Amino acid sequence: RAFALSACRFKRTDSFNSGQRTGFTEDEVEEQDGDFIEDSEVEELFQEQAPEGITGGQHRVFIIQPDVKWGRKKQHLTTAELMMAEAVGLVNTLDNWRVVDTVILSTKTPEKKRIFGKGNFQFLTEKIRQTSGITAVFVNVERLSPLSEVKLEEAWGVKVFDRYSVVLHIFRCNARTKEAKLQISLAEIPLLRSRLKNEISNMDQQGGGARYIGGSGETLFEVQQRLLKEREMKICSALEKLRRKRHLLRSQRTHREFPVVSVLGYTNCGKTTLIKALTGDSGLQPRNQLFATLDVTVHAGQLPSRMTVLYVDTIGFLSQLPHQLIDSFSATMEDIKHSDLLIHVRDISHPETVNQKVNVLNILKNLEIPERLMSSMVEVHNKTDLVDSYQSAEPSALPISALEERGLDQLKKAVEEQIVKSTGKHIFDLKVDLSTPQLSWLYKEATVRDVQVNADDGSAVVKVIISNAAYGRYKKLFTGR
């Protein structure tokens, strides 16, 4: 199952020389809507009960990639070798974690507690015990059951991670904004619950887990469950405040009639580099790293007509993550649904580019993105500079190199064409009287493409891109209709 993550951070950006503001800071919006959340409150929730073993410290990791030969768990658009390469990339993303060894091992029993058959499991156990310095094992599966995690840790004597816990740790390390931290804390709740059951089960076996606490009538397990539930409710309440703030931001953008273009794709496909190239925003610092961008940022850019649009750097997708993790972040996906256009960026140099495209489209389908956005989506083949003699097998896709800024003019034209269609804007030639404020009003409220002045009668013919609402205001102000 594919996964998408975004958290919300909006920047203040000047709309080139127009003096218009195209973004809003968090503090400004919080002052307006009254839903201010103290940093200390968020930090307390974020740090209160992080899952043991995935925060801080360092690990020397042994990676195991199960190779499922058949059945519903078999991957058809990728290979075990490519999945292993992504797992290595995930571990290398983390500071102070490094891969000490890897193994790809076939299995017919991925649903079993120990994942592998008796012979392969024995082989693994011996290899792990004989490799010096291992402090953790990463089994590259979506999610290990609590019982599987216990059994594997007992057999191998080190901490065992699955994809869920490794990616959560990456998110935790990269989280910067309030919303990102809160959503990560919410995503950790299922992990904390499953580990709590394991701990209580072990205590029961030792004769201490079922005792009541201080005459309260609650067992230790019930107390811990209640505390987790209270923490979950606090996080959800804080996220709801931020959701209302995001709704206000969206309303403000709509009021100013700036078209919104969401740029999305598989993690590390080059979204941030592309937005930097389209906008010239020197503050953007792309990194060649999985999940380098966790927080949504908004950046103003101009199209060939000089129309200002807002490019939203939103999504990093990753395959094979469980539903609970997706649910924690789904609220921020509302921004995509309210876009005027989607740009799907693909790393065309990646050996799994087809599989990555399928993952992106699947998650958009699961999020019930409106058909108008899916049908108008612009597909971009990025990193063509890394492909010898690149030729696209998909004629509708636009080949570019964001790093070398190749193909951007064609992309901007395609974006402009789709934006005019999707926003219901019109292109008009309007005759204006230069002795009135008509021309300055059009510069402020519409996109002026061209001005042809007739000095003899003090008029001009102005070619503009203008919305229905703005055109209605124009007629009411200057033509009396």
TrEMBL record:
Gene3D superfamilies named in the record: GTPase HflX, N-terminal domain, P-loop containing nucleotide triphosphate hydrolases
Organism this protein belongs to: Seriola lalandi dorsalis
Residues that hold GTP according to the record: 265-272, 291-295, 313-316, 382-385, 401-403
A Pfam match: GTP-bdg_M
Ranges where the Hflx-type G domain occurs: 259-423
Binding site for Mg(2+): 272, 293
PANTHER family tied to this protein: GTP-BINDING PROTEIN 6-RELATED (PTHR10229:SF0), GTP-BINDING PROTEIN HFLX (PTHR10229)
Cellular-component GO terms for this entry: cytoplasm
GO MF assignments: GTP binding; metal ion binding; ribosome binding
UniProt name for this protein: Putative GTP-binding protein 6
Cofactor names: Mg(2+)
Keywords, alphabetical: GTP-binding, Magnesium, Metal-binding, Nucleotide-binding
